[in-house]
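Q: A reviewer asked whether we had any structural model of the full assembly, not just the individual parts. We don't, so I'm hoping you can provide one. Inputs are below.
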Amino acid sequence: MEYTDFTKLNLSGFCGGSFNCGCSAEHSVSTKKILLRGSARQQAAACAAEAQPSGHILFACADDMYGSCARDFERTLAGTHLVSTVRFPERFRPSVQSSARLVKHSEDVRLIVSYGGGAVTDVAKYAATITGLPHVAVGSSPATDGYLSPWAELYSGEEKRTFAAKPPEYFLLDTDAALGAPPVLVAAGFGAVMSKWGALLDWSFARALTGERYCENTARLIIRSAESVRRVSEGLIKGSRDAVLELCRALVFCSLANQLEPGGRVRGGSEKLLADMLEMLALRRGKSCRLPGEYALISLCYTARISGMYFEKAHANVLMPPDPLRRAHLLHTELGMQQRDYYARAREHKLCEDGLFEHKLSQYRSEMHALSLSTLEKARWALDAFKKIYADAGYWLSGCLLPGEMRRAFALAAEAGGGLTVLGHLQLRGYLEHLLMA
Ligand SMILES: [Zn+2]
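A: Here is a predicted structure for the entire assembly that you could use as a starting point for your response.
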C-alpha cells in the first residue's frame, strides 16, 4: 500500500479508506460520506435514502434544536420515509439509559438519523451499535470533536464512561446551525481542538518510555487542525463566519483522527482524564453541565504544568536513569518489560539507533520537558483566548471544588487511565502528591 500523507487528503479522500503509513497500525475509516454543508436538509435526506431507500426511520434530537432546525430535517425525511421522533430534554445528560430509549423505539426501524451536538450523536451512535442499524449523523454544533469517533461517552449512573461504538455511516455537519451557535459552544469547540496538545504530550511520553507506537502522520493531522484554529482565534472572538467554519473543519478532522487512530491516543491524555473527573464533581455539586472542551482546556493548564515540573531535572533520573542497570530494574518492576524488549520495541518504532541508547534516553527527558513547557504555554494562551470568546469560562471551578478537591480529582484521574499517561505514571511513582503541593 502506498504512503498517504493525511494532511494532503480532503474529507472525501478519507471516506471508506484504509491507509498504511508505516507506523505498523492499519488506519481505516468506515464512514462512507463526510460533508460540511449549509442548507443541508436535502443532503441529509439523500444520505438517508442512500443508507436505506425506504422504510422506517428513527429520528433523534434534543428539544432545544427541534424548533429551530431539527423539525425541518424531520419533515424533509418524512417526504421519503416513515419517521418516528425521539426528543431528549434540552442539555440532557447523555447516558446508557438515553440510548436504551432509542433502542426501545427501534422495532421495525431500518435506519437511525440523529440531529444535534455531541450528546445526541453519542446516544444515537451507541443505540446504532446495539441494534446494528445504520446511522446517519447530522451535527449541529461546533463544540465537539467526537462526531466520527469509534466510541460514545455516556453516563452510567453517576459515572461517565467511554463505550466502543460504531461510527456513523454518513456524517453531515449542518454549517447553518453551527454558524448560529452561541459563543459558549464556539468556545467549547475551540477548547476541544486546543486541548489536543495534551493528547500528543501523553502519546509522546508513552513512546519515549515504553516504545509505544506513535503515528507521526495522525499527529500531524491534529497539529494542523490546532494550528489552523489558533490562526483564526481573533475571528472566533469577533464571531466571524469564516473563523467558525474553520473551527468546524478542524473539529471534523480531529474527530476523523479519532477514527483513524485505533489506539485511542488522539481522544486525549492526562487532561482528558482530569476533565472527566472535574465534570463528574461539578455534576455532583449540581453545577450546570459545562461542555467537555472547556473542562479539557482548563485541565490541560493543570496537567501540562505538573508534567513540566516532573521532567525538570529534580525528578528526571527516576524516569529514565542513564545507568543501564537501574533502568533495567525500573523497566522490569514498573512496566514488566525486559530492557532488551524495550530496545527491540524502540528499534522497531525507530526511536533509537543502535549505539545511541544512552544518549537518546537522556535526550528524551529534555525533550519531554520542552514539550511540556510548550504545551503549557499553548494551553495558557488558549485559555486566555477562550475567555475572550466566552467570558464565563472557568468560573464554575471556584464555586465547585471544595478545598483539596482538585488533588482528589487528580488522584482519581491518575487511577482511571487506560494506557500509560504522565498522570498515571506520577501516581504510580508516588510523585503526584508531592508535585501538587509544589
Ligand atoms: Zn500511522
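A: Points you may want to mention in the reply: The beta strands are 18-20, 26-28, 33-37, 56-62, 82-88, 109-116, 135-139, 151-156, 159-164, 170-174. Residues 314-319, 352-356 have pLDDT under 50 and may be disordered.
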